[in-house]
Amino acid sequence: xxxxxxxxxxxxxxxxxxxxxxxxxxxxxxxxxxxxxxxxxxxxxxxxxxxxxxxxxxxxxxxxxxxxxxxxxxxxxxxxxxxxxxxxxxxxxxxxxxxxxxxxxxxxxxxxxxxxxxxxxxxxxxxxxxxxxxxxxxxxxxxxxxxxxxxxxxxxxxxxxxxxxxxxxxxxxxxxxxxxxxxxxxxxxxxxxxxxxxxxxxxxxxxxxxxxxxxxxxxxxxxxxxxxxxxxxxxxxxxxxxxxxxxxxxxxxxxxxxxx
Length: 260
Hints:
Blueprint: E1 4-8, H1 13-24, E2 28-33, H2 36-49, E3 54-58, H3 66-76, E4 83-86, H4 101-129, E5 132-137, H5 150-169, E6 175-180, H6 190-193, H7 199-204, H8 208-220, E7 225-226, H9 230-241, H10 244-257
Parallel strand pairs: 1-2, 1-4, 2-3, 4-5, 5-6, 6-7
Helix pairs in contact: 1-8, 4-5
């Protein structure tokens, strides 16, 4: 039976590019997304471009009961997930008090709770089989506080922390956990957060296709953490060596340079 990969946020951006990477390497796909039209179009195009079989599952996984519904579908179709890609996420730009509480909590639900719950429900089965790969898409935003996108940065810091801890816990099980930390602008984040990068940043950032290629290779070789892109690596490196208050100040100044 061909190996199968489950990708959340699979209908566009890095999620779709990761689906293409997996399909081109012989994986069957379960593609999860919120928009039924975009999801079906993405799956149909993949099947035209690659010799792969796809199953689509339209859902907002942050809503109560949706993880259970997804797991039930996998069980009903006797699908064993060899690769799990936790990519679904969104960000919201603006001061903490200017964004609604509902928006902030929805971000936490999708970026943190959903990723945690889906990983928990699937990784145990991987451990029982003695093999499996998990790719969690975080962000370089994880490495410094983010005035103007405070909750988004915090959720991605959680993804990095949890993923690295799980990678250590699972090191003797045959299951690997890789964390991919692209620049937020490479993730299509501006589509939902209102962030638009400067021309300098746009020229330096990697495409979603290139980010996905780096992430796929890192996952397949079992790397724990990958930060794609020279500028992205440099930004993360600077953030790590600066004192916390200076890293926060730098992030705030960079955020102000972005066009709304």
